[in-house]
Amino acid sequence: MKRVVLVAVAIVLLNGLQSNAQQLPQFTQYMFNKYLINPAEGGTQNYYQMRYNNRFQWVGLTDAPQTYSISAYGPHGSKDMGFGGNLYHDITGPTSRTGGLFSYSYNMQISDNGMRVSGGLSLGFMMFRADGSKFEYDAIVIDPAIDQSTKSVFTPDASIGVLFYSTQYFFGASVHQLFGQKLYVTDKYTEVNGEEVHTYGINKLRQHYMLTGGMLFTLNSDFMLEPSVLFKYMISGPIQVDLNAKVTYRDQFWGGISGRWQDGISLLFGYQYDRYLFGYSFDYSLTGIRKYNAGSHEIMIGYKFDKLK
Fold first, then answer.
1. Which of 103, 179, 194, 231 could be stapled to 211 by a disulfide with Cβ–Cβ 3.0 to 4.6 Å?
2. Which residue from 38, 14, 5, 3 is spatially nearest to 234, judged by alpha carbons?
3. Where in the chain are the domains?
């Protein structure tokens, strides 16, 4: 006789693998690393750059999400194309996602006023892990034969995007988790009496659609204002809207405010020293979860290499 035990391998948190919420990691300081939003960003500047983003979400909440990401991207030395890559590790309770995406982009001028368009494609992998020892099983399905070790699934991943830009504005669209495949975590165990127990979980990676845009305004010789907006949508999920405004002083210091519709508000601060960039943001939730955490913290460190063009 065989018995089947269904074990949830994805927890129901805001950015977990579920049908009605965003599955991708969330970053407040995306405007300093738009490559995370759109692979077409690679090659749009005349130098290579690196960005490290570290996000601690809902600090104080048990098993709260943590995300680590490092990106590097830039142009070809003589042709209108770019290359880049991003490695990330996203942890949410007993589940985690580790992945890498490597991109190619091509850009061209499309108007006499300096407007250009870039198209980019990223290909890579994603490893989904579920730590069985951290799950809390219902008493009905508790069985000593159930293995509580870590289970992993390896799957390909891809994203695609297009970006229109100039020195004064940008507008882009991208699609992430392009394949939209299902993830299966399955294992078979044998009890002492010979009966087989199967532990398994099924989740689907859903396509995420993103639209972003912004403009740069010169207020005077010292200050510049850059408002921007980001729309994120996943099939069967709500639309998420980020509205941002950043003021930069003499290309060195910046401060800003960001609002995430029906979610929270954020304060941003940063400083650029020579080729180095340092940024920090604090998110305050406006939902009921604010009672159980001390906010979300995000750190950004960047570096700009020599110009190639």
1. 231
2. 14
3. 2-206+272-307
Angle CA(93)–CA(95)–CA(98) in degrees, nearest 5? Answer: 120
The backbone torsions φ and ψ at residue 181, rounded to the nearest 5 degrees and listed phi first, read: -85, 165
Which residues, 6 or more positions from 308, have their beta carbon under 8 angstroms from its beta carbon?
Answer: 46, 47, 48, 74, 75, 76, 77
| Mean pLDDT of the residues in the chain | 84
Picking from 51, 46, 13, the residue whose alpha carbon sits closest to that of residue 32 is 51
CB atoms within 10 A of CB 84: 23
**The residue type at 50:** M
pLDDT beyond 90 at 235: no
pLDDT tens readout for residues 13-46: 333 333 345 678 889 999 999 999 999 999 999 9
- Give the torsion sign (CA, 42, 34, 37, 102): positive
